């Protein structure tokens, strides 16, 4: 599993949010429903805010229930863009993310299986053996949207040294 540690300046994520059930395998129907609920106006506004890497839609999960690692409960999920700008509309939500250290896990493979496998390996293998712990903040992922079954993805976790 590849990982790189990066320092990132503060940024915002602007998009749509919904409280969804925690699900470790397969596609989450509630997240699909959230994506399908994005209006043309919301989509246009988010595209105008597209000024920071990865310059595409990201998924951010935060406010996890305490039963997360039992595969139970809910989390808040946001679909949006990473931006240095502020949210200009009431149609979207804004999540401010402070500057900090991030563990970035790139991967390439079939979606969603590869991305879900990497999530599992991060918590089962990498975190226990690394010099880092997860800190407060959103867990961010994105997958390049191409027409192939094999897709490039990244997972970003806010971390600090143990």
Can you describe this structure?
With 162 residues, the protein is α+β, with helices and mostly antiparallel strands. The chain contains three helices and nine strands, in the order E-E-H-H-E-E-E-E-H-E-E-E. Strands 1, 2, 3, 4, 5, 6, 7, 8 and 9 form a nine-stranded antiparallel beta sheet that branches. The two termini are 20 Å apart. The mean pLDDT is 92.
Total number of strands? 9
Q: Please give the count of helices.
A: 3
Largest sheet: 9 strands, antiparallel
Helix-strand pattern, N to C? EEHHEEEEHEEE
- Beta percentage is 35-45%
How does the overall form come out from the CA principal axes? globular
- Distance N terminus to C terminus? 20 Å
Provide mean pLDDT, rounded: 92
Radius of gyration, in Å, reads 15 Å
- Structural class, judged by helices and strands? alpha+beta
Helical content band = 10-25%
Low-confidence stretches: none
Summed up, what is this model?
With 162 residues, this protein is an alpha+beta fold.
Give the topology, please.
Blueprint: E1 4-8, E2 11-21, H1 29-36, H2 40-48, E3 58-62, E4 74-83, E5 93-97, E6 100-110, H3 113-129, E7 132-134, E8 139-143, E9 150-161
